[in-house]
Amino acid sequence: MYIISLGTSLLILLFASSAATQDAYPQVVSDDQCQCYFTNGSNAHYFTKHKFFDFRSLSEHAGVPEIIRDPWDGSHALATSDYFLSDEWTDNWTTQSWNNSELLESGANDASYLLVNSPSNIYIEANRDEDAASDTYLTMRTGRLPGFQTAAEFESVATGFHYISVRMFARTRGAPGAVTAMFTYRGADELANVQESDLEIRTMDPLETVQYTNQPSYTVDGDEVPEATRNVTLPRGLRWTDWAVYRMDWTPTTTTHYVDGEEVAAIRFQNPRDPSQLFFNCWSDGGSWSGVMRRGHEAFLQIQWIDMVYNQTTKNTARSEGEASEQLDVLTERDAGPCHQVCSIDQTDKVGTTVLIDAGGSGGDEDSNEGDDESGASSVFGVDGRLHHLTLWIPFIVVVMIGTGLI
């Protein structure tokens, strides 16, 4: 008979439990194995769909096009590469070519020159940063030309997003007098009925300052609505010229904003209620909000990736008006009850992937959209996560026993 010492037994238990813990940690899975997605943070929420757009390895499409100096030619420009003709792009995004000539003629805002969106200002660019973390990124460009401002915007094909957690790994660069933005939007005939949640960076502002707003931030009489806006200093010494993850969580009660995982703003006032679109843009019109860009100067929004989980109505409804939202709000969610396969894009170590955090069917009820962001993960580790917590103590116990001569 072999007699195994207590120390040896503990060492065996250590290695065995460590292996079990590794097996128990959330595992990377494909989206077709996920019935819903649970976000972390102070306003955690369940979503039913996931999409990831990766612009980091598109060298075959990279190239910086010449800026088009004629307004008509700019608005009628072709796509800058085959990527923007691919199904991945055209099934999800629409590159814009509209201009603000009607607004200028009506005097509806204080724009001082013509703005023209051009497909030529959205392109894939080689990353020439020192110690670059990607081969390429998507660039959106705006530039001041004689007589007008050329700009860039793309919007989601889907107009029925009804709550979303969207993140972009991005930076803003360039001359004062531009705005770069990521926002949800639902238009209306009257300003007071517009529903919009914005992340905006103004290049005339200090490098560490960004703006978050639940629009409208002003009235038809020109009065400001201060409750709608948060002016935020970026955390940990970041500047908007640095690469950072900007995250916006629009949920039923609040729009919450994060930078590199740190919550920086939460706005309940005028929180959007109805299905909306998602937009990205880079622009200037010489008005008081953007400021005036000097002629010959440019600014850029550069994006390495976009990651989002969301709920969506069965109809594209963001442009519709005069219909009760209850009639339109038929979510393409699980109609049969609670979610049994809960995933996360927050607990994965690799951006763009999802991990299974709960296969027990405890998550995703409509009445449990908010709560502890660890509750789902704990069920993976065993009853209330006790197996996981126990294994964390074993190395400490072994070290103590070695130090006291028990092993």
Can you tell me about this structure?
With 407 residues, the chain is an alpha+beta fold. The protein has a domain at 49-325: Sandwich (Jelly Rolls). Helices cover 15% and strands 33% of the residues. It has helices at 6-24, 71-75, 87-90, 101-106, 325-328, 375-380, 386-403, and strands at 27-29, 36-38, 46-47, 49-54, 93-95, 114-117, 122-126, 136-145, 148-156, 161-174, 179-186, 195-202, 209-215, 229-233, 244-250, 255-259, 262-267, 277-283, 298-312, 342-344, 354-358. A hairpin with a 2-residue loop joins strand 16 (255-259) and strand 17 (262-267). The longest helix is centred in the first third of the chain and has 19 residues, at 6-24. 37% of the residues are buried. Residues 18-22, 320-336 and 366-392 have low confidence and may be disordered.
- Return the CATH class of the domain at 49-325: Mainly Beta
On the 0 to 100 scale, the average pLDDT is 85
Give the end-to-end Cα distance, rounded to a whole number of Å: 20 Å
Shape field? globular
Keywords summarizing the entry:
Jelly Rolls, 407 residues, 7 helices, alpha+beta
What's the SSE blueprint?
Layout: H1 6-24, E1 27-29, E2 36-38, E3 46-47, E4 49-54, H2 71-75, H3 87-90, E5 93-95, H4 101-106, E6 114-117, E7 122-126, E8 136-145, E9 148-156, E10 161-174, E11 179-186, E12 195-202, E13 209-215, E14 229-233, E15 244-250, E16 255-259, E17 262-267, E18 277-283, E19 298-312, H5 325-328, E20 342-344, E21 354-358, H6 375-380, H7 386-403
Parallel strand pairs: 2-20, 6-9
Antiparallel strand pairs: 1-21, 2-3, 4-19, 5-9, 7-8, 8-9, 8-19, 9-18, 10-15, 10-19, 11-12, 11-18, 12-13, 13-14, 15-16, 16-17, 20-21
Helix pairs in contact: 1-7
